[in-house]
Amino acid sequence: MEGLIYLEDGTVYKGKGFGAPGTRAGELVFNTSMTGYQRILTDPSYKGQIINMTYPMIGNYGISREDNESQSIHAFGLIIKDTSMRPSNHRSIMNIDDWLKLHGTPGIWSVDTRQITRKIRREGTVKCVISNEGISPEEAETVCTSAVLREDWMKAVGVRETVHIEGPGKRVALLDMGVKGNILNSLKGYGCDIWMFPYGTSAEEMMAVKPQGLLLTNGPGDPALAVEAVEEVRKLIGVLPIFGICMGHQILALAMGGSTYKLKYGHRGANHGVYDKEIDRSYITSQNHGYAVKGDSIVLKGMEVTHINLNDGTVEGMKHRKLPVFSVQFHPEASPGPGDSQYLFAKFVKLMEGGAL
Q1: pLDDT tens digits for 4-42?
Q2: 158, β-bridge pairs
Q3: pLDDT confidence of 110, banded at 50, 70, 90?
Q4: Which of 93, 98, 112 is nearest to 12 (CA)?
Q5: What beta strand segments (E) does 59-152 contain?
Q6: How far apart are CA 240 and CA 208, in angstroms?
Q7: Which of 27, 192, 246, 316 is catalytic?
Q8: How far is it, in rounded angstroms, from Cα 115 to Cα 52?
Q9: Cβ 29 vs Cβ 220: under 8 Å
Q10: Of 328, 316, 324, nearest to 350 (Cα)?
Q11: Most buried of the four, 17, 186, 220, 222, by CB within 10 Å?
Q12: CA dist 301 to 229, 306, 318, 319, Å?
């Protein structure tokens, strides 16, 4: 199959198609991870996005039963330099081509992904059309012009009704805006009794299960559009220990009266350096976000910045000066990426046990 990538500024890249035949419009982003493509594509935070992988070989270890972060692929498309249709891995059950077909996701390979990445870094994320159906650039332009990119996917990718995952430990109310599977696994590792609530659940409904802590999950889109979640979270500040991750970090900042903004091209990958000011230590972290918290907007709201991105100085973590409330922009559960920041789940459990930040 012929593959075509069309950007809203008229730039065209041609390659070879694979995966499910299709034409889709989305936001073009890049990810710098060397491995973990299965976890990346099934991360709900990628809903509405077309992922350009900077690492040149994707698919060489195939697809396994164990490496999904959710039940389906959420990304709208995949762009890679090269692939392998004969993976080498004892856990592999199929190749990436068949997997993309199974989930209806189009892919393009045999393109210069580094060139595409440089363009994104120079000009920022852009609207993009990916097609492996043999359409012309003119047809792709029509699709691109008419496409409206949705920025409130966090309202649609989580659970539809309350889900209870029993555990012997502390009871956690989890507001699901697109939770990754390994966040749940991390909580289970501490024995947490998890109550997953869909977007739009009121503070009163969450408090009805008598939780001992609130976890705000990751998710896709613009946090400023999650007005309902911000309002309900605001009611629970000072009532429960709160831990926010990625989108949850941004929601918490807005609930505290802070503000967020869109980054030029975001942070996506498993190799982002973050400095923890409290313990004077740096970590390599897994990240996936296109928005960030304005540091100046939270420091007068009772919050202080605890983590800084070592590449661009953006806010990567914060905590309340008096209340048991904290959050991070990166993914402490990793998957893919290093698990160096798993200690943050231990900190959350400690808060639920009555400890201090």
Answers
A1: 999 999 999 999 999 999 999 999 999 999 999 999 999
A2: none
A3: very high
A4: 112
A5: 77-79, 82-83, 106-109, 126-131
A6: 13
A7: 246
A8: 10
A9: no
A10: 324
A11: 220
A12: 19, 15, 11, 11
What is the enclosing helix (H) or strand (E) of 17? strand 12-19
Q: Are strands 163-165 and 49-53 parallel, antiparallel or unpaired?
A: unpaired
Read off the pLDDT band of 331 (50, 70, 90): very high
1: its two tokens: 């199959």
Q: Which of 75, 2, 71, 7 is nearest to 37 (CA)?
A: 75
Contact 48, 150 (CB under 8 A): yes
User: What mean pLDDT is reported for the chain?
Assistant: 97
Helix (H) or strand (E) holding 204: helix 203-207
Asked if 196 and 165 count as a contact pair (C-beta separation under 8 A), the reply is yes
Query: DSSP strand E in 239-280: where?
Result: 242-245, 260-276
d(CA 327, CA 319): 6
Distance between start and end Cα atoms, the chain:
55
Does 144 participate in catalysis according to the annotation?
no
Number of Cβ atoms within 10 Å of the Cβ of 355: 12
Six-digit token string for 32: 């710098």
- Using DSSP, state whether 124 is helix, strand or coil: coil
pTM for the whole structure = 0.96
Tokens 């309902």, residue located:
228
Q: How far apart are CA 354 and CA 357, in angstroms?
A: 10
Q: Would you call 327 helix, strand, or coil by DSSP?
A: strand
- The active-site residue out of 272, 307, 320, 331 is 331
Q: Answer yes or no: 333 catalytic.
A: yes
Residue 303 CA to residue 119 CA, distance in Å, equals 36
